[in-house]
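Researcher: Next entry in the queue.
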Amino acid sequence: MIAESTGQTPETGGGATEYIQHHLQHLQWHVGEGKFMTINIDSVLFTLLLSALFLFFFIRTARRATSGVPGKFQAGVEMVVGFVDGLVRETFHGRSKFIAPLAITIFCLVFLMNFMDMLPVDWLPGAFAKANEVAGNDPEHAYLRVVPTADLNTTLGLSLMVFLLIQVFGISHKGFATFVKEAFTAPFHAEGTVMKILLAPANLLLRIIEELVRPLSLTLRLFGNMYAGELIFILIALMTWNAAFSSGATYAMLPLQFISGFVWTAFHILVITLQAFIFMMLTIVYLSMAVESH
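Model: Structure for this entry, 294 residues:
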């Protein structure tokens, strides 16, 4: 979307490269000497805020739900719940009351985190820089990234959660002995003890690769799409009115920025929704595969 010239801009921050680097830098907290561990405070903060927002509105809607004609928000929530519940019934072949709430939570939370990319790129970072300036700090080093899913740590954390759930569901539905046995006897089946022993290393290797690919694909798919979307919004924001004059461009730069921002925003709404749906759907599929016997 079209950015407003607040905070660090190409004309005040030193140039396009500095502007991009500034917007891609996290607000961080370094733990221990020598930066033993670094926490991206902005990703954690926005994830917690959006989680609280999701819980507040869904719990509030559930408590105020009526059997009569629902309000607009209740109707929207019911559509989401019904849609996800239908997908779970069609995809998940096991029995669990946990899957549908999990799928709804994943879809809504990932969508909300993705939707932060719809905010103009300079709004919240600019306000944060101004607040630091008022507090007597250096606004040039006031970093803030507002899209949690554009942070690899966030998407990796979500994917690892799904990975752990896959193992838990597999063991709980099959039993530990059957779960371990399948790791050595599938996908290559064999008759006879000798052949089973010979194929066991290959089966185990394929099982390890299969299990590791799942969280890796979930992580990189969501992160890559959201990072690219955020970067394109930043590049569009470089086409500001003042940047047009500083580079000797014509008045055509302003409508070009508006058109580019509008087109990419319309397309990106589809992307953020699709990515939330894919993450949710793959989670359901992986959990369904975990409870099925080979």
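Model: The mean pLDDT is 85.
Researcher: Noted, moving on.
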